[in-house]
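@channel sequence for tomorrow's demo:
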Amino acid sequence: MFQREIIQELEKWLKNTIRKPLVIRGARQTGKTTLVNQFAEKFKHYIYLNLDLPEDRKPFEDFTTIEVLIQTLFFQNNITIDKKKETLLFIDEIQSFPAALNLLRYFHEQEPEIPVIAAGSMLETLFDEKIHFPVGRVEYKVIRPVSFPEFLMAIGETAAKDALEKIPVADFAHDKLLMLFHTYSLVGGMPEVVNNYVLNKDITTLKPIYDSLLATYLEDVEKYAKSGSQVNILRHVINASFLEAGKRIKYQGFGKSDYRSREVGEALRMLEKAMLIHLIFPLTNVELPLMQDMRKSPRLQVLDTGLLNYTVGIQKEIIGTKDLNDVYKGIMLEHLVGQELLATQYQALCRLHFWVREKKTSMAEIDYIFPCNSKLIPIEVKSGTEGKLRSLHLFMDAAPHNLALRFYSGTFSITKAVTMNGKSYTLLNLPYYLASQTEKYISWMEKQELSSKK
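structure tokens (generated this afternoon):
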């Protein structure tokens, strides 16, 4: 198994002098357990508990004091109690006994020297009103599907990864990085799928894994649905979500159904808590603060673009294409760019944003808004010339800064664009395989412009 970049985040957490127990969140099958098992290699001792198993759950069910709990866990794993600092304690599938999450507070308050990680799926969905998160006594990280840089490491393309991360990207690396990104867009970022591709280099062997992943998500609804009718609604919404991904949606009749807006809205919110989807409500402002307009139709983002491609049936379109903008009316590429923008955001509250201006006389929409250095940077995922970026011009006319990004299939370039009202701004044209490097390029561009003014 390849090394995930989030390992670096875990190393920062471990070195923190005021370290708290860490809860790793993420949808099912995103590799949470594998990630922590890899991280555990840095420790002399490792206690792994799976609360799906009765024998691992029992010490928590019998909890009296944190001292007794720790003594029990160390004794059962044949580790002396004086090895606390050298021992990683990992509580996996914590959703199987939600009360265990409350017990994490005692590790923080009474045993802070023990590195404790917990992981689980559907945490908020499973908790009732009597079980609360230990606010202020734990911290959270989110693990998402594999990013393009991680994919390059997985397939052994270390030189390509180095070229990807060098700013600005060299022209000689363009064709190969474009080809590799097309492969990544086809495979997607689910760890099991990526691992299978690494072993076999054969797209046709991936079909059973996609089917298995989708079946797992459909089966999971029985664990958190409140009734038999809600099971049916959730299953419909999961299936329909992959078909509607990348589009703005209406709750009423979602997925060509007779389900009411309230039923669909509740199902979508549950799936969002399980981290299978993201509901992206638009911004209407061009400056901070980030304020989503919940009255407007959201855009739907699903967990993984590879699963989207498989479900929609557009994999053959991707093979051999020169420009991913030409596939699925550009929806797939726009969705994948969003996935890449999220991939390195490990905080639980990180979200995607887009912008709209909806008037009777004119409609405008920007694919993504990326907050960086106190600015809201507009991002378009488009082919074509700068003159066709009408919505971008409208946004930049109102924006208090002069930097915008465009992802496309062409090579890296910087151009001076002019809005219809005559405002000049800098347009950073990036090959779409650089989406994971967005924040670095924005900071680099701002430094370049600052240097040019000196």
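heads up for whoever presents: The two ends are 48 Å apart (CA to CA).
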